[in-house]
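Input sequence (174 aa), recorded before submission:
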Amino acid sequence: MKKLILSTLLVTSSLISAELTNLKTISSNFTQLITNDSHNTIKYQGKMFAKKQNNLALWIYTSPVEKKIYYRDGNIVILEPDLEQVTFAKLNKVPNIITILKTAKKISNHKLVAKFNKTKYTITVDGDKVQRISYHDEMQNNVSIRFSNLKTNTPIKDDLFIYEIPAGYDVLKQ
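Predicted structure, token format:
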């Protein structure tokens, strides 16, 4: 399940065309649905933040479990309070969200497509705002991330992307 979440954590955004080339920050609420080939679906909710500078992202999951996933240049830190653990991992096969949006090509008025490492990302827009990103992950699950209250190019403080490991947490390295 961690690999599934990791593969979805770096996707999102906002404005089309010229605005995408100037994208510096993104923040949004999200609902992530992951459906397997048996049609079982898991629903996650939370908030995400990303900055082009220093290639940073933070996904804060609030439901059905709490966890924070920090991303910086291919390095992942997952803090899981319910398990009292922190996991360190590398994630080089998944692009950051800004990369996906900047490479997306318009295929219709409401759809863009981006490809990265053989994964096709379909981006649904309404006007100039990204509404959803959908794709099939490496385990052939259908992943759909819906965005709400999406904001772009608003200031995000760097200290938001700094994690602290609580005392007593187990430390895992993958």
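Checked by second reader. The helical segments are 2-8, 18-21, 97-103.
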